[in-house]
Amino acid sequence: MRLGFAVKVLGAGGNQTTVDPVSVLKSNDARRWQSEPHVRQSIEYVAEIFHYLYKSDIHMYRMSSDFAPYLTHPDLPQFHHQLTEAASELAELGALARKYDIRLSLHPSQYILLNALDEEVARKSILDLNAQAQILDSMGCGPEAVVVTHVGGVYGEREESLKRFISRYKNLPEATKRRLVVENDDVSFSHSETMKIHEATGCPVIFDNLHHFCLNPEGVSMRDALTAALGTWPESVIPKIHYSSPSTSFDVVETKETGNTGRAKTVQKWKVPPTKAHSDFIDPMEFALFWEAVEGDKRRSFDMMLEAKAKDVALLKLRRDIARQIEFGAMRPIPGF
């Protein structure tokens, strides 16, 4: 099993207990359009990330959806040809990922809605999905490199919204369909509904454990949902799943209140976090129980994308925590972990 994390790299490396903010590695050229950002700069940043991942024995990574800045912006055509302009550099970056055995993925933002009611929103979303797939193609990535998307909005008509996703998916370019996978979410569309999309289109399903915990009206067990999702992937491709722990920390909220003197003052209050919020780290006890629940199944092997706010630091800590349990004899070794 390969473990991975998303986008931001805190860069702790061998420092196991503290993180220096200046060690954070940039993941994309984030300059405003007036400063003429370019994917070439993002390539330089991500190459440094790949070197760091290799040194840290991390072999899966989600690149920023802004890797190629303003690539599909309708009012900034000067950015539309970046992938062609940087073709050789993209190929070199892909070769570096293959050399280091780093599995890559992209996950467009929540504003990418393939099933949108508004045709213009859907059109722009399709352009973005096509561009994300083209990035991975330009890097020469194999079929394990995927573009992850959610179903989108319900818009008061669940079945019609599912049908719109299915219809538009079927009309996507083949190059985009080869990369696209659909993930269950925590608010709108459950695992069972993503399975309906797979049955209608063949689109592979990403299983997300926290989303399944938050939205599972069909009452499908974690193990059964995972097994079903793994079975949607082509036999020649190792599936991947998303794993996270819910936040257990209060959110600090600042509000303005009028005091006894009539003057406004800032007051801090503690707010209970929503269950769907990701924690900074992965709870190792929870992970051990999850693995115990699914490990005995005669299922396919899979890779795991950790969605934790502490990013690579969370991954490295989980590795140490689980290694200790294996050392105690409380868990069997996890291949590739």
UniProtKB/TrEMBL annotation:
DNA repair listed as a keyword? yes
Q: Name one GO molecular function term.
A: endonuclease activity
The entry's keywords: DNA damage, DNA excision, DNA repair, Endonuclease, Hydrolase, Nuclease
Biological process according to GO: nucleotide-excision repair; response to UV
Q: What Pfam families does its record include? A: UvdE (PF03851)
State the name under which the record lists this protein: UV damage endonuclease UvsE
- Determine if Transmembrane helix is one of this entry's keywords: no
